[in-house]
Amino acid sequence: MSEMILVLDFGGQYNQLIARRVRENNVYCEVHTGLSIEKIRALNPSGIILTGGPQSVYADNAFLPPIEIFSLNVPILGICYGAQAMAKILGGEVKPAQTGEYGKTDVELIGTSKLFANVEKKSVTWMSHTDRIFSVPESFSVTASTKNCPVAAMENPAKNFYAVQFHPEVVHTVEGKKIFANFVDICGCKRNWRMSSFVAESVKNLREKIGGGKVLCALSGGVDSSVAAVLLSKAVGKNLTCVFVDHGLLRKNEAAEVEAAFKNYDLNFVKIDAGERFLSKLRGVTEPERKRKIIGEEFIRVFEDVAKKIGAVDYLVQGTIYPDVIESGLGKSAVIKSHHNVGGLPDFVDFKEIVEPLRLLFKDEVRQAGRELGLPENLVSRQPFPGPGLGIRIIGEVTADKVAIVQDADAIYREEIFKAGVDKNLSQYFAALTNMRSVGVMGDGRTYDFAIALRAVQTDDFMTAEAAQLPWDVLSRAANRIVNEVKGVNRVLYDCTTKPPATIEFE
Fold first, then answer.
1. How far apart are CA 336 and CA 152, in angstroms?
2. Catalytic residue flag (residue 339)
3. Are 418 and 445 in contact (CB under 8 A)?
4. Among the options 80, 149, 187, 189, which is catalytic?
5. CA-based Rg of the chain, rounded to a whole angstrom?
6. CA distance 413 to 251
7. Domain 5-186 sits in CATH 3.10.350.10
8. Which of 464, 454, 380 is nearest to 422 (CA)?
9. Cα–Cα distance, 29 to 16 (Å, whole number)
10. Is 242 a catalytic residue?
């Protein structure tokens, strides 16, 4: 890759969105944490972005970037904590603010700036800080302010150092995308990164890395693992074996559909029926993280058993993507939930290495890669489905009866969504089984049954999401069918919570 913008991660919750905004400008971008100046030099970035983070830059154990980055002669953009780190290192002053700022905040630009080219002089931004910059370093000027934050942005254009106290990466900052586009221009990037080049380079790198080694791919039939499987097939051919584990936690009829979808691909497809094995491990377990880790570990153990039967296997391939990585905790970032193919792995795995060719891609980028690889559109556009499956769409203990309930309810919900033609506007939609039971009445009798929760979201990157405002008649038909056709359910709820504060999945 000829050009790359490096994001130095300081533990903020929106850090992967920064990479997303850069890539929208056809510039490759990676997020790293705790890099030494030697490693930063080796990456040879076209520009550097310092992210937000939960610490105070004046704390004794403050996590700061290497001071040497300011001598690399590359443009640097500091965001929130990153802006304060830039100010402190270069001689400014950062202190606690008497009044913090949280949420949507009006910002007014001061003077002119390359970073704010074509940006409205007054606009809404997203703030989240308790500290602020009280004095700027020498040769810096203030380029934006708010009612409670006189230094909402600063810059030293001679050195191409820029800093903003607000978060331009989130959608609530109205002019945020323009700001990132301007920074890409400041970095002199040619905007020539394309998914076709990523696919070609990935195939080349995988072929060099794996050589003649044997590869086992965890194939779920979802978009991520399917793209990873075809990518590996192009790289290593017959040395790849794809294992589809039916862990008994799939959607209704999904096992048969996956098997049919891949029968025409040269992937050495192997199907393993392991439903009873997984359910026995989950018996009595209610804590979400524990469920995820049990399912993740059992996946690995199944793959190890398969590997022993087919002979020595060197590599295990998984369809891990960028949102999986950040939610499982990147560097000093918070762990939101351990994904079974990231934080859910056991400490010991009987493979030389785990290969994750999609680890640096967002969901829509994975879909683009699938199209480049020639996968059919019905597979590329398939509904996202988590590795732990319905295990994390069942609140509390997972049993065979509960799996059947949520499978049937989910199938009805998805059918009604599709029949109404509203599926094309949705990023993900599904039914989940709550652990709440309530009194109802059917016919002349009293019932005491479960409540199903329906969820539908709209998102570009799965890092943030809005609850979809589905037509009431669609929800009404789905609810009516579920309580009448699914035994054990007498109530249907609709989840209208955004992400954050909720996650897309229930556990």
1. 29
2. no
3. no
4. 80
5. 25
6. 12
7. no
8. 454
9. 10
10. no
Distance between CA atoms of residues 499 and 507, nearest Å: 13
d(CA 248, CA 381): 23
Q: Which of 3, 155, 169, 372 is catalytic?
A: 169
**490 φ, ψ (degrees, to nearest 5):** -130, 10
Catalytic residue among 3, 101, 155, 167: 167
> What is d(CA 318, CA 97) in angstroms, rounded to the nearest whole number?
45
Which tens digits make up the pLDDT trace of 294-333?
A: 998 898 888 788 878 877 788 888 888 866 665 554 444 4
Catalytic status, residue 169: yes
Cβ-proximal residues to 199 (8 Å cutoff; 6+ apart), any chain = 231, 369, 372, 373
333-355 pLDDT per residue, tens: 444 344 444 334 445 456 788 88
Q: What values do phi and psi take at 201, rounded to 5? A: -70, -35
Cβ count within 10 A of residue 34: 12
Please tell me the pTM assigned to this model: 0.64
Residue type present at position 54: P
DSSP letter for each residue of 45-107:
-SEEEE---SS-TTSTT-----GGGGGS-S-EEEETHHHHHHHHHTT-EEEEEEEEEEEEEEE
Is the pLDDT at 48 greater than 70? The verdict is: yes
Phi, psi angles (nearest 5°) of residue 297 = -70, -40
Q: Give me the CATH topology for the region 195-380.
A: Rossmann fold (3.40.50)
User: Dihedrals φ, ψ of 479, to 5°?
Assistant: -65, -45
Q: Are 326 and 33 in contact (CB under 8 A)?
A: no
Q: Cα–Cα distance between 323 and 69 in angstroms, integer?
A: 27
In the numeric block, which tokens belong to residue 483? 């309580």
Q: Encoding tokens for residue 55?
A: 């610490």
CATH assignment of 399-495, among 3.30.300.10, 3.30.70.560, 3.40.50.720, 3.50.50.60: 3.30.300.10
Cα 210-215-216 angle, rounded to 5 deg: 150
Q: Over the stretch 261-279, which tens digit does the pLDDT of each residue have? A: 787 777 888 899 999 999 9
Q: Which residues pair with 489 in a beta bridge?
A: 450
Q: For the chain, give every residue range classified as CATH 3.40.50.880.
A: 5-186
